[in-house]
User: What shape does this take?
Amino acid sequence: MPATSPASTAHQERRRRRTNRLLALAAGAVTAGALAAAALPGAASAGESTHHGFPGRYQDVQLLSFNDLHGNLEPPSGSSGRVTKVREDGTTEQITAGGIEYLATHLRQAREGKKYSITAAGGDMVGASPLISGLFHDEPTIEALNKLDLDVTSVGNHEFDEGARELARLQNGGCHPKDGCYTDEEFTGADFPYLAANVLDEKTNKPILKPYWVWKKKDVKVGFIGVTLEDTPGIVSADGVKGLKFKDEVETINKYARVLQAQGVNSIVALIHEGGFPASPAYNYDCDSPGAGAGISGPIVDIAKNITPQVDALVTGHTHNAYVCTIPDPAGKPRMVTSAASFGRLYTDTTLTYDRWTGDIARTAVKSANRVVTRDVPKATDMTELIAKWNTLAAPIGNRPIGYISADIGNTGTESPLGDLIADAQLAYGKELDPDTDLALMNPGGIRAPLTYAAKAGEGDGVVTYAEGFTVQPFANTVNLQTFTGAQLIQVLKEQVSGSNAAAPKILQVSSGLTYTLDLTKTGADRVVTDSIRLNGAPIDPAATYRVATNSFLAGGGDGFPTLGQGTGDLVGADDLAALEKYLLANSSPTNPIAPPKADRITVVN
Assistant: This one.
């Protein structure tokens, strides 16, 4: 019998890697590639370049990256588990993708033969997670990322769903302060550093976590700076960001780039939880390929154009899109900007060619491509065991039926069938709390997945389990009732397409009885046709009052709806998932399942 088991050896190796990282902290889409590597004298091939027994000038460093995992340990289902491939003839193909068992195998295969390899992430590793992770405050996902040998990640907005103190626990370990330990072993926390350079404690004015981290191997050093989007307070509950300040992404990255350079680190990668919108939804979208069109738009473009040229590459996220682009830096030189969609369906493989003479990255040689996490590779057995362990703990809760549906109920589109269903559920629950409740409004970003009809293991077609419901609404928001004037209600609807939502409208999902016209040929607030707004067929009276049900996130003015934070007569109910469960149980059965709503309450004029 060997002195140590493979599992023990792997555990020791992970501890060694964590110790090395902490010491470093204390010290301090698919084509051949978006850019063809330029010919460099003495350029390294895979592995370490040598010249007469000494290291050569150039060394290729592999950077594997992904973003927006959201605790999707099991293969995501429906559209959340597919990516679009555009073939050379312009036709498209849908490919099933994702699952931590497959992501681990793909990353491990990609690292084979690469002595210089880094794995990094762009935030939202946790939060809005399926039951297997979310039920346990995302400890399972942190365990999986440790086994995955993730080296570093930025924070995302969802890392703040449960507040800064809970984020610190995920980093440092310890049992949950309320729910305690879930197994016999105390949670040890992340082996990798979470970077939060632009998230400051209001009292100390210092970052709540490490702002940067330096990866070192022999004489090669690469620095990482991690930030989340400055607008995080606008998309996270007020309790989650209490006592925190979120600073400008560009100013923060430029500040710490100077700090790193002062320490002799000239090769720098920014991990930014903010993203863009590509001209194509394809996973193999390469902005720089012939015929790519308009490239990408959105916040990341201005951010990328203004970050100091000292930063050599940007790993981005947040928008759940896939792209591999070059965007010019302030000096006009191209710089790689990547994003790997979401839910572990893709990873990005980037080659950074390190110049030992300058300690910098040879930018003209950088190449990058998105790779699909296909499900045709062997599952990583350690991940299979991890999933089985946590599923065993979750099964008594997760497998419980909470309703029945007759077909898939989707969550896409300006108005979605699932959005209508959830709004109706919250209206029904609101009427139980207060019979005078008139309507309900639901934010589309709070609907994280569709309800799928197909049978799951051990279940019949059309069964909706608690685990599926949890995946749809994982935030544990409460259903709140508030009173608004008709004028305020009209203003709320106009805020969908104006103010902070002007560039990227957020169309609220509405309960039965509320109808209006959305005219997209107009601009700003005028897109909501005021005269068309009706409640149960009657025009909204600006002077009258209306009782409105929303979730607690919207009731605090979240998602760019400040008027929803101005209601009166607050009444706080149970969590939103309980409201959905109650509605499904009351309105469906195995012999009388719920059909998808028609999604015809908002008339859209294009």
